Amino acid sequence: MDNASFFIQQLINAIFLGSIFSLIALGYTMVYGIIELINFAHGELFTAGAFIGIIVLAALQNIGFVETHFVLTLILVFGMAMAYVAVLGVAIEQVAYKPLRKASRLAAILSALGMSIFLSNGMMLSQGVSDRAYPAILGMDGFSILDARITYGQIFIIVLSLVLMVALNMFVNWSRLGKAMRATAQNQTMARMLGIDIDRTIRATFMIGPALGAAAGVMVGMYYGSVRFDMGFIYMIKAFAAAILGGIGSIPGAVLGGMIIGGVEVLWSAFLPSEWKDVTTFVVLILVLYFRPSGILGEHVSESRV
Amino acid sequence: MAKADFKKFIIYSLFLGILILPMVGFPGRSFETARAFTIWGGIVGILAFWLVSKTVRRSDMYQRTAAHLAPFRNTVSRKFSKFPTKYYILALIIAVAAYPLLADNYMIDVGITCLIYIVLGLGLNIVVGLAGLLDLGYIAFYAVGAYSYSLLNLHFGISFWLALPIGMVIGGIFGCIIGYPTLKMRGDYLAIVTMGFGEIIRLVLNNWDKLTKGPNGLLGMAKPAVVYPAFTESGLGWVVYSLKSLHALYYLMFIIAVLTVIGVRRLDNSRIGRAWVAIREDEVAAELSGVPTTWLKLLAYAMGAAFASVVGAFFAAKLSYTNPNFFIFMESCIVLCIVVLGGVGSIPGIILAGIILIAVPEIFRELQNYRMLAFGLAMAAMMVLRPEGLIPASRRKRELHETDQFAPEDLKDGG
Fold this sequence. Notes:
The complex is a heterodimer.
Chain A: H1 3-35, H2 42-62, H3 65-68, H4 70-97, H5 105-127, E1 132-133, E2 142-145, E3 148-151, H6 152-174, H7 176-186, H8 188-193, H9 198-224, E4 226-227, H10 232-246, H11 251-271, H12 277-291
Antiparallel strand pairs in A: 1-4, 2-3
Helix pairs in contact in A: 1-6, 1-9, 1-10, 1-11, 2-4, 2-5, 2-9, 2-10, 4-9, 6-7, 6-9, 7-9, 10-11, 10-12, 11-12
Chain B: H1 3-25, H2 33-58, H3 60-82, H4 85-102, H5 105-130, H6 139-156, H7 160-179, H8 187-207, H9 209-212, E1 218-219, E2 225-232, E3 235-242, H10 246-269, H11 271-281, H12 283-288, H13 293-319, E4 321-322, H14 329-342, H15 347-363, H16 371-385, H17 394-405
Helix pairs in contact in B: 1-2, 4-10, 5-10, 5-13, 5-14, 5-15, 6-7, 6-8, 6-13, 7-13, 10-11, 10-13, 11-13, 14-15, 14-16
């Protein structure tokens, strides 16, 4: 393999990883933008999406649906995973976050952390401790550019994530509910005065953010071929780093941050010892928080928020 | 039975069915009906119990009985509260000291683990409870203590007692290293950054093969030893007694725990402790009142880290072994859980929570798998239902009541 094909291969990896981090980071950024709380359970919601993907795929494979209706299978897998996680997200919000909206910040964070521990262990008990193999349905068919092998599966995943991001951006910018979300994020009291149903807006945020995370979970499962109950933790930290790097609360920022973190990670694994790559992400996160807590695209955040 | 409650019950049950059935029902490739419906049924049963108990409590008969029993309950609680705290503490110390005489080796080991976590909880309480800085990477300092003793002992042959103060200093330095960049941060950013630091330390221990032997861990540290004068064959000389038995280690840990309780209690009531509480409540106001916030925050990290590294050194010495996997993020969560469940800032609460959270799952081994599940749920439930903890700290309780009385709206951004 020569340099150019190596470069293309790494570029595809970077874009893939970057879009995964972006999708997860979007969930963080939306929730943080509206209620100013880090949804610690977001990583677990992502994992739950991956597991539901496995379950639906396995069930469809059992009845021989995959061979006959391939496109419908993909729609069903992504749709069911996203729907399930959207319900789970709202359930968590109602149980653990809503009663604490007026309580101290520490209480809300601890409640979120408790939910994260609860979900991750619930998945461990129900789905097992070991790696679960993902049914390989995307196959290895593909094409080559300069010896670099690119499968249709990779292309599909990257395109799907881009579509989701664009759809989200359009939704937030143009739809009624999206406008309500932006208004609530800017000034909750004022939004309430203008007749926006705050509870409904927050519920919608807790459906859309986790649903994007769930899509990312299914993609990770399909791409790497296995999922584990605790894989959400490391993705969560990296996606969070991405959300902060881009500027928390900003949707284009989350995408940009995700791409940067994905790129840095792929570059690091390509040229430097890969067991240190997680350390790099943490260091990037801490440096960003220290030097520019408002991120690249974030508006200036007052010190009290930080 | 109120209609609204019943409706809520039905909706919750259906929702939980949607959430539980697919996750629990498919451990493999096929749907396991029995497993899924047993668990769902259990949870619906709990909900039904809640519904029934709520209806009973609303009923006239229950209210009348409660009114009859109220004077009796008051006299009993008054009798108990009249009992001076001194006696409770004395009874507790005697019970803990006498415990190894009655228990077998396994139970003594559980006791040591309990004491270790209680001390960790008390140390974290300085950071979280007093200074109000949420630290999710606390177990890293425990790791620093364990590894600094291991390395000092293996490479330089330094004894446990000498390694303790050195470990405390190293732990304190690490505390400041973590504390310094986070001085300006609050709340959730702080939580993420400390979590990141905790993971960095674990990953460094895991990857730095030359120094720490990576995931294999370090082996063969000396146990703590006591030197005392005695008559031997060659006359009066010094005899080295290595604390190898579990009993001896238990008492050593017991002494560390008692010293920690005394230390944390004195800190709590000191000028520094009050300054920490001031920072927790309102940093700007504290700064303006002349509290040196920067130094005190660093001091809080350093003090918390010092306590953790003492127990870390003890832990390494007890096992004669350490490896990075002892110090995963979940351990930080367990310690935080102890602090939160016991009541943030409350020493008796933390002791009680430490005993409950560590000993109960060890005694009922079959419940081990469900331990973290219950911890997580308990943590969230505690925050929603009873944020002051099992045994609230007296100061904290007063604060919470104050917020009940006066405009809670104004305080919502305070934490």
